[in-house]
Amino acid sequence: MKQSIFSKNDPLNKVVMRVVMKQVMRDMPAKLLSEAGLHAAQMAVPHFAMHLEGLKKYGIGIFASLPDEIDTQPLDDWLIEAKIPRFFPFWQEKLQTMKFRAIPENIKISALKHSLFKVPEILKNTEERLACELRFILVPGLAFDGRKNRLGRGMGCYDRVIASIQALNMVHEKTFSIALDCQILSSIPVDHHDKAVDMIFTPTRSIIN
Predict the structure, then answer these.
(1) Could you tell me where the DSSP H helices lie in the chain?
(2) What is the pTM of this model?
């Protein structure tokens, strides 16, 4: 994959980048995505360990990974072991907002079907929270860059969530992503509505400041 085709900041290159990165991720063996998820989680855990009090009080938003995404289960395993409340994201189309439902302690994230527009049946009666009420939120992405810009799947749901959080002028990091090293590109085309995450963890490095 040549990063040069993504050098210009225009809508066409953003579309091209999304198509290319989707194919790159589809071609990744499941074992590699699982191993990368484990190593990225190992990079993230020391940072979150410094915020255990806030995590245990407010919880964390975490999604179930798609077959073409880095595996989120290793991070979820640590959260379960550390007894940190976990919340599953879902998008409310009428309200144009994202909410989160508590995940029971005995349910792993991989057991939940990834569906941003439908609450899993098992979570329909659990506690509901807004994004601003959580300590951290895991944000998916097809690609990122060193400035923590993010390329999503084009729906803009998480950009609106991040924008709503930023509007509250919170002083601490809140949003983060885990990614393969090959998902970190030299630059990501950015539109006015695109929002960067606060932190990115890959199997080999942390991008925070």
Answers:
(1) 11-26, 30-49, 52-58, 73-81, 157-166
(2) 0.91
